[in-house]
Amino acid sequence: MAQPLFFLVLVLAFVGSVTDAAVVEHTFRVGNVRVRRQCKNRVITAVNGQLPGPTIYAHEGDTVIVHVINESPYDMSIHWHGILQLLTAWADGPNMITQCPIRPGKSYTYKFNIIGQEGTLWWHAHVSSLRATVHGALIILPREGPKAYPFPQPYKEVPILLGEWWNANVVQVENKALATGLQPNKSDAFTINGRLGDLYRCSDKHTYKLDVEYGKTYLLRIINAAVNNQLFFKMAGHSFTVVAVDAGYTVPYPTDVLVLAPGQTVDALVVANAPPSRYYMAARAYISSPPPLQPFDDTTTTGIVRYKSAMPSSARPAMPLMPDYTDTPTAHQFYTSLTGLLKPGWPTVPLHVDEHMFVTFGLGTVPCRRDQPRCTQGALAASMNNVSFEFPTQTSLLEAHFKGVKGIYTRDFPDRPPLVFDFTNKNLSTNRALMFTSKGTKLKKVKYNATVEIVLQNTAIIGTENHPLHLHGFNFFVLAQGFGNFDWETAVQSYNLVHPQMRNTIAVPTGGWAVIRFVANNPGIWFMHCHLDVHLPWGLGMAFEVENGPTPDSTLPPPPPDFPQC
Ligand SMILES: *[C@@H]1O[C@H](CO)[C@@H](O)[C@H](O)[C@H]1NC(C)=O
Ligand SMILES: *[C@@H]1O[C@H](CO)[C@@H](O)[C@H](O)[C@H]1NC(C)=O
Ligand SMILES: *[C@@H]1O[C@H](CO)[C@@H](O)[C@H](O)[C@H]1NC(C)=O
Ligand SMILES: *[C@@H]1O[C@H](CO)[C@@H](O)[C@H](O)[C@H]1NC(C)=O
Ligand SMILES: [Cu+2]
Questions:
Q1: 5 CB under 6 A from ligand 3?
Q2: Of 150, 388, 516, 560, which shows the fewest CB atoms inside 10 Å?
Q3: Homologous superfamily of 151-342 in CATH?
Q4: Would you say 525 and 398 are in contact if contact means Cβ atoms under 8 Å apart?
Q5: Atom 4, ligand 1: which residue's CA is nearest?
Q6: What pLDDT, in 10s, does the model give residues 172-217?
Q7: Which atom of ligand 4 is nearest to the CA of 521?
Q8: Please, what is the Cα angle at 424 between 420 and 428, to 5 degrees?
């Protein structure tokens, strides 16, 4: 046996001179740093003192090792958003779901392989609101490099991280909201690659600039790293061709406007073919609840595209005409026009379904607590199938699952809502009988390799809103989306079972529904939750418990030796 194996290793080493899997290693020191924005001094938590944090570049097939050293005063955990984490659930990162936090002064090494995915992903803190400033890009190139893209090779690639900024401590903003049971303060600004842009006061010199050469094609790898806002993105004088979303290739889709929910990414080609000059790129909020449920951040962040051949000028760059804040038709057009690119050897939509779920979700209320004196009408909450998710406090779900610890969670997450009502009827928004939600840490257990189909149905309780739902551990196919109540008879005719878009985060239409499908081929505990950070502590989440498969290749190994303890 030894000889053929030795021979095989030699052959692989030979062929592998270009395509060899590598180890990509980083050290992330998470700590507090002083910055000055809008003429104010601020202390933020950041990785290696950078905002955005370091970009991780890897090739498909590589192993990524990140040593996270927590020098901040907060509990920390890092999530590798969109990474499938095949058999490495211990490295997924959501606080109290797959791990206890890394305490101040402690460290933890995340180690995972990147298998069967290419494109733009990102990493972010997955504990309280710290991801506001603890985040960065995670870019996966094809094993053979850019020449293997299923689109013409761009001249240059540019990460564009869209962020959200508070002139306050984000942890205090969140804690205050949770203590009162009310909405948290809105943000003060948005950012492009950590910079506010010259439409904000004191920010003239704090503007992201992209230098381009006439006639060249650029690949923008755009990430919505904002905390609570979906964002429209445009570039004056230019249009985009979308080639991937959430690290899944799409059929090229031409458009002059992009919209991204928090957690989502868009890879878009831009040809620098406008008259050489200076142009703004800009991002501002898409608010999905008209009239807006609460005051929102109506500011605009800008960056400047500068043609190298442009004549010097002091004129303001051309500004793109942004969609209205509440332009749901434009957002819906973008979200529903994307289709997946069929590529030999890549996953296709499973046609047989083992588990059918119908999950209603949205806002609600729970009784005020004694320590919430300003709370009178009930504290704001959110739920899925009328369960408001409660995070465990003693042991992470994954550790409880692996060690068989009882009493941390139950396996009774319902497959259907307990009550069928006119889910999206706004007249029922303030109905007291529907508003109150139950609480629990309920999981849905699924067999290894089962295909799960979920109808995600928004409700109108308290208000209608587009909630971006993010699934850990899997990509899913989006079969259909629509407004109003899901109706199987009509919806099933619109299912895309040929080339649906593949995502890890679906912005479910406001007052509407979406149907997703995934194969549970990864044992462990996998969180599914709203990626608007404000709704997560309110309980808009649930988790899947995926059993081990029949072989060692389908069995979750034990946690690494430095796994954080509670
Ligand atoms: C929230 O906003 C109010 C009004 O602008 C301000 O007085 C308060 O300090 C803010 N709270 C936090 C925690 O930032
Ligand atoms: C909501 O209430 C109004 C006023 O009573 C009524 O005209 C309308 O039909 C109701 N809408 C729905 C969807 O039931
Ligand atoms: C949710 O559960 C609570 C508590 O059991 C109940 O009062 C409420 O009617 C339920 N709401 C819905 C929409 O099922
Ligand atoms: C999982 O499902 C796939 C496709 O349905 C099948 O090819 C594979 O053998 C299954 N694996 C196991 C371990 O059951
Ligand atoms: Cu939400």
A1: no
A2: 560
A3: Cupredoxins -  blue copper proteins (2.60.40.420)
A4: yes
A5: 185
A6: 999 999 888 888 999 999 999 999 999 999 888 899 999 999 999 9
A7: 1
A8: 80
Closest to 444 (Cα-Cα) out of 361, 355, 519, 543: 543
Question: Cβ-count burial of 376 within 10 angstroms (0-12 exposed, 13-18 middle, 19+ buried)?
Answer: exposed
- The ligand minimizing its distance to the Cα of 177 is 1
Which residues are near ligand 5, the ion (C-beta closer than 5 Å)?
467, 530, 532, 535, 540
* Number of other residues whose CB lies within 10 A of the CB of residue 345: 5
Place of tokens 């909405």: 183
For residue 251, the surrounding DSSP H or E stretch is strand 248-255
| Helices (runs of H) and strands (runs of E) counted in the chain | 6, 32
Alpha-helix runs per DSSP H in 20-119: none
CA dist 377 and 167 (Å) reads 29
Instruction: Output b/e per residue, 285-322; b: 16+ Cβ within 10 A.
Output: bbbbbeeeeeebbebbbbbbbbbeebeeeeeebeebeb
Token digits of residue 340? 């997946």
The structural domains of the chain, with segments of one domain joined by +, span 1-149, 151-342, 355-554
For ligand 4, the distance from its centroid to the CA atom of residue 217, given in whole angstroms, is: 41
Which residue lies with its CA nearest to atom 6 of ligand 4?
Answer: 449
Q: Spell out the alpha helix ranges (H) of 133-284.
A: 170-180
Percent of the chain with pLDDT over 90: 89
Query: Tell me: the pLDDT tens digits for 463-492?
Result: 999 999 999 999 999 999 999 999 999 999
Second-level CATH architecture of 1-149? Sandwich (2.60)
Q: Fold identical between 1-149 and 151-342? A: yes
Spacing, Cα 415 to ligand 4 middle (Å)? 24
CB 397 within 8 A of CB 390: no
Instruction: Quote the CATH superfamily of domain 355-554.
Output: Cupredoxins -  blue copper proteins (2.60.40.420)
With CA atoms as reference, report the closest residue to 110 among 131, 94, 130, 127.
94
Q: Which ligand is nearest to the CA of 293?
A: 5
- Give which of 58, 281, 289, 70 is closest to 160, Cα–Cα: 281
pLDDT at 9 > cutoff 80: no
Element (H, E) at 306: strand 301-307
In 3D space, the residue among 434, 480, 470 whose CA is nearest the CA of residue 542 turns out to be 470
